[in-house]
Amino acid sequence: MLPGVARGVGGAGRDVDPAQGTGHVSQQGDAPIFALNEFCRGKLIEGGLSAECVVVKPNFVDFDAPQPAPRAGLLFVGRLSVEKGVATLAEAVALLPDVQLRVAGDGPEAACWMAWPA
């Protein structure tokens, strides 16, 4: 699977709703290939896919942009394992005055983080 691309469900000659950001599939037996934006669509076509089979289907979530707010500290979200370097991040943050590190995740090092001073 290519980043930013979802394989559609459908078949030859299947019309899909243009209001939903999709188009007509013209190649026999091919399902549409959905790209999240025009840039990805162009890259897929540039890579050799048929322009008729690549349609833009943007993310469907529509919400207001967040309002600017003061930020406090840093947040790490991910797997808690040695190779992620979270301990190095925590040591670096400890050198910065008035900066707090929040850690969210699970993994082999989770028990260490539960004991880490807040």
Secondary structure tally, helices: 3
- Mean pLDDT score, rounded? 77
Radius of gyration: 22 Å
Kindly report how far apart the N and C termini lie.
Answer: 41 Å
- In terms of per-residue confidence, which ranges show pLDDT below 50 for 5 or more consecutive residues? 1-28
Helix fraction by DSSP (H/I, runs of at least 4)? 10-25%
Explain how this protein is built.
This protein is α/β, with parallel strands linked by helices and 118 residues long. The chain folds into two domains: 5-56, no CATH class; 74-115, no CATH class. The protein is built from three helices and five strands. It has helices at residues 38-46, 86-94, 110-115; strands at residues 5-7, 33-35, 54-56, 74-77, 101-104. The strands form two sheets. It has a three-stranded mixed β-sheet, with helices on one face. A two-stranded parallel ribbon has the order 4-5. 10% of the residues are buried.
Which properties best describe this structure?
118 residues; alpha/beta; 2 domains
Question: Could you write a compact summary of the structure shown?
Answer:
The chain is of the alpha/beta class.
Element layout with pairings:
Elements: E1 5-7, E2 33-35, H1 38-46, E3 54-56, E4 74-77, H2 86-94, E5 101-104, H3 110-115
Parallel strand pairs: 2-3, 4-5
Antiparallel strand pairs: 1-2
